[in-house]
Amino acid sequence: MQTRLVFSHQPGFPSPETLADFVRQGARGGLTNRDAALFANAMEQGALIAVLDSADQLIAMAGILPLLDDEFELGGALVRADMTGFGLQKHMVQARLAVFEARQIAAWSDLYTGAAHADYGAGSRKALAQAGFVPIAYEAGPRELREECATCTKPVPDGKTCCYQFFQAPQDGLPVSYTPGSISIRNSRDDRVMELDLPPID
């Protein structure tokens, strides 16, 4: 199957309303619901990416979202349930890091993220650690994310303050391995093959 990744500043990127609908319909696990206004703001101040199929239907999306205190969140990625197993997470992480660096959105140490302690967050935690993010104490996490934690109703693992593990980018930056071009990736569950086009950032 033919697919392509698109950055939010490029033609053909889905509207904020389309992204909000995608999250509302497909949110599962630890992903926090986000609205169209937040995505519109992220397009202006941060960065979003989307993966589209050959009919321009949304397969996956993720972003770098502006927070309070001039900080940014490498937000959770959402992959459509029938498109999991291709390992899109690692490509989406690298695409977001590449646009963060190329567009000089903020200092590296102002970039935070998180992943669920629960089993469904294992893939995200692994991808973030491999990308170079450093786990930090709950108290060191961005104020806005900690305020969200206070209103969250998800179960908190024993011995933890929050259901999420916060991570921060190191001050000297993260290694970025995004390379434009077409890659072929095989689904680990059913052997389907996806051709993914990775565009220049511009």
Notes on the protein architecture:
- By secondary structure, the chain is of the alpha+beta class.
- It has a domain at 2-111 and 171-198: Aminopeptidase (3-Layer(aba) Sandwich).
- Helix content is 27%, strand content 26%.
- Strands 1, 2, 3, 4, 5, 6, 7, 8, 9 and 10 form a ten-stranded mixed beta sheet that branches.
- α1 packs across α2 and α3 (88-102) packs across α4 (122-131).
- The longest helix is centred in the middle third of the chain and has 15 residues, at 88-102.
- It is globular.
- The mean pLDDT is 90.
Task: Please describe the topology of this protein.
Elements (H helix, E strand, L loop, with lengths): L1 E6 L8 H11 L9 H10 L1 E7 L4 E9 L5 E3 L3 E2 L8 H15 L8 E6 L5 H10 L2 E3 L6 H9 L12 E5 L12 E6 L6 E6 L4
Parallel strand pairs: 1-10, 4-6
Antiparallel strand pairs: 1-2, 2-3, 3-4, 3-5, 6-8, 7-8, 9-10
